[in-house]
Structure formats: C-alpha cells, structure tokens
Amino acid sequence: MESKIHGIDYSYFEIKRLIALITRKYPFVGVESIGKSVAGRDIQVLSLGSTSDFTLFVTGDDPAFRIATLILLQFIAELSEKILVGDEMCGINIRRAMFGRGVMILPLLNPDGYEIALRGQNGCGNMADKISKLCYGDFSKWRANLRGVEISRNFFLGFKQRRLEEQKLHIAGPSFAGFSGYRPESEAETVALANFCRNKRARQLISLAVGDKTVMYSGFAEPERSVKMAEIMAAVTSFSITPPITNKNLNFSDWFAYEFEKPAITVKIGGKLVPDCSELTYWYARLRELLTLSCLF
Fold it and tell me: What is the per-residue burial (b if ≥16 Cβ within 10 Å, else e) of 36-53?
C-alpha cells in the first residue's frame, strides 16, 4: 500500500496502515494509542515537534465525516515532508517557524462508528442485529459509537441541558444519533480523549466538523486571542465567523476551552451534505493555509 492519500474510503485497518507508513517515512513523527474504543480498536495520535507546546487537531467523531480523517493525515504528511526537505509551506519556512512548537493530530476518534457507517453489518461484529434495529437497517446514518452514544455529546459541559432536549425528542437510550449517554464520560472513547487532553495540555484546539463553511470559536477562554485566530482563519478560507453559541449547543471544543482555559476553534466544512472523500483535493486545498497557520498561533 503506497503512502499517498487518495480521495477514497479507507477502512479502519487501512487508516492504521497509512499512519504506519507516514511514521516509517518520517521517523520524527511519533504515534501512540491514547486508549481503545468499546470494541478494542486503537485510538491513535500522531505527534510532530514539541509535545510540551503544541496545537491539537481533532476529528473523527462523526462516522460519516470520513474526509476529515484524510485531510488531517494529508496535512501531517505534507508538513513532515516540508520539514524534512526544508521547503516552504504556504510561503512560510515551516522548519524555522515550527522550532520549539509541535502538533498532535487525532485523526479517528470513533473507529467503531466509522466501521459501522462504512462497512455496515461487517463493521458491527456480534452487535449487528442490535445496531441494525437502532438504525432501521440503514447503517450509513450511524453517528454514534458501538454503544449508541455520540461521543461529542458525552462531555460534562452542557450535559444536563442536552439530556433534557433529548427527552423532548423521545431519545431515552442508545440511538444511531443524538444520545449523550446516561452520564458524562461514560464511553471509552470520551475517557481516552479527556484524559489525553488533561495529561498533555495543548496550547489550543482545532476541531473539524460538518456544516456551513464557518469558523466557530468558544467564548470560554482567551476571547481576544480566540477572536483573532478566528478572524485570520476565516480570512484565508473566505469562511464566515460564528461567535460563541448558546448553552444547549455546547460541544467538545467548548468543553476543552472551559476545562483548560485555552482557545478552541471548530472549523466547519461542507454544508447540508457531508463532503465525500472524493472531494479531498478541493477541501484540502481550501484548508491548507488555515491548518498551517494554526500550528503557529
């Protein structure tokens, strides 16, 4: 399998092979498992440069948003190549600019959900019958982990409000989408991400998500720096800026900003439809400068 990342759907095991090829080609890129999913799949983080002063890039919560995993893998591969050969990236001497700084990338937070949405029954293991009932036989719309919990909704910040909203929608338990769990941090994936963030303490968080082309910043931490980051990121992408949202819509980025008092930016791409992996070239070109500058804020 070649190391070039194509605009196609990769399975979980193929993603792991891509990560292994990247770390083999660039020995200065590290990889570690921060925990395991409910089904025992590794949740991997790639690291480049300083692990004491770094930007954390996260995606992979939404199993349908598979293009985001490819965008982040392509980004760290190109960043590594520019550092190796000493070339500029987006007009920046990236080797010099990254001195004393680092990036850590979590490309796939929800590997179980990823496999369910991509491979259907073959990705469910012995849970196939139960999962089929929860998603009415349409595995492609699965947005949760193996236990029917949306990971991004399983953090404590705003948890009670989300549960009240779910009850109004008659979501009382595991579902293909929209269930926050019975208590915060009940899921293996949530615990792995939360503990990683608590142990490592990133300088800032950049999260990729589906939605209209916009840059959202959390109001819980360093508002002046957060606004400035959002303005620069919006300018280089021609995206809009979305200011802090109401309490009932709090997400993982808000939890990060609240917990660590550091900027947290959510970059939304696509629109009403989830971008397909075949659009990788377009979306990577659109986000390339944003991602590069995010390492340097």
Answer: ebbbebbbbbbbbbebee
**In tens digits, what is the pLDDT along the chain, a chain of 297 residues?**
456 899 999 999 999 999 999 999 999 999 999 999 999 999 999 999 998 899 999 987 899 999 999 999 999 999 999 999 999 999 999 999 999 999 999 999 999 999 999 999 999 989 999 999 999 999 999 999 999 999 999 999 999 999 999 999 999 999 999 999 999 999 999 999 999 999 999 999 999 999 999 999 998 988 899 999 999 999 999 999 998 876 667 889 999 999 999 999 999 999 888 999 999 999 999 999 999 999 999
For domain 12-112+203-294, the CATH architecture is 3-Layer(aba) Sandwich (3.40)
Bridge partners, residue 31, by sequence: 46
pTM confidence score: 0.96
Each domain of the chain, given as residue ranges in start order, spans 12-112+203-294
Could you give the 3-state DSSP secondary structure of residue 239? Answer: coil
